[in-house]
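Predict structure. Chain length: 413.
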Amino acid sequence: MMNNQSRIVITGIGLSAPNGNNLQEFRQNLLAGESGIGTIDAHYMGEVIAGACDFDTSKYQTKKELRRGTRAGSFAIYCSHEALADAELNIDDMDKSRIGVYLGITEHGNVQTEKEIYNIKQFNYDIDVWSHHHSPRSVANEPAGEVTMNMGITGPHYTLGGACAAGNIGLIHGVQMLRLDEVDLALAGGVSEVIHAFGIFASFKNERALASHTDPRKASRPFDRDRNGVVVSEGGCVCILERLSDALARGARIYGEIVGYAINSDAFDYVLPNAERQAECINLALKKAGMSTGEIDIINTHATGTPEGDKVECQAIKQVLGSNSNAYINNTKSYIGHTMGAAGALELVGNLPSFEDHIVHQTINIDNLDPECAVKNLVINKPLKVDKVDCILNNSFGMVGINSVIVVKRYVQ
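Prediction complete.
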């Protein structure tokens, strides 16, 4: 049994998703089946289907900060401030050298480089118009670093490149650093600005993995027989992680306790997933949590809407759960698309209110369920009220074969 110093809990949540800018709004739209997908204009691509966010970047940043910084940094700053406010914490009363910022990200620097190249093209590639801000904007630690500069945090900060598994990995790292006593408070999660890079759309299109549909709101359709690819989206989510002892001492509201996690590698292919390794990652997370498959109430799937990826994850889930599980299965990307580095964290927190309301949000846009994705208790097209929710398992997998899984329990003393 872990003591209260080793038990790590979530006490604050800040987010921006294509269909909501705080947990209450996000959750309401999930239960109402409200998609946040629309269209944007991308350089060289024209109109593309994407999930764009609409949050107030000026709420916590000056015009100068916005000019010098990045969209990913704005997500990180907005979500961090919102999470601290939600946790009712004033870090000016804390030792800021004992606060860590750990943000997962899929990629960083592409947006900034593509913009500069696009701009100098207008001036016949005259490099004299290249921004002198480009270098600090494009370094890998930039989004987390913007948070520390904005808030005066002097503890450790970095981003963790974990492809589309990165949101979970940011949270996992925050847990580890608290348990190692490296920090007393962790701002952890993930961010993504990728819709502002045309290259990601071009890449997915050339892989025949970019979603299309006459109605953008129905383009993201994991598990549907007619799914045809990924909807690229932006977003951000930061959680406040604390030791249970500290949370109890200040009477904090506790959203849930992170009791297990795992990260592993497929060692298989650049883009194709591997069911055996995904199943191993799920089992390892449960083992660390000291739990059995029968104790899982909700599995939030990673499924992105690609024919192969969805099918392989369903194979992994069936392999882990067998035929006797009562776990309910859902998916969040059907509402918001794939928010890449933010996906794991956003999708986890969208399910956390289930601990209180006992409602499992649905997977939308399933008109014809693919028989190969017909996992038991898949919640389709309308929310489901259940007797209890005590444990949520969150899958998040990424390119070059990286897998991450987090297990969160309803807090009980």
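Summary: The radius of gyration is 20 Å.
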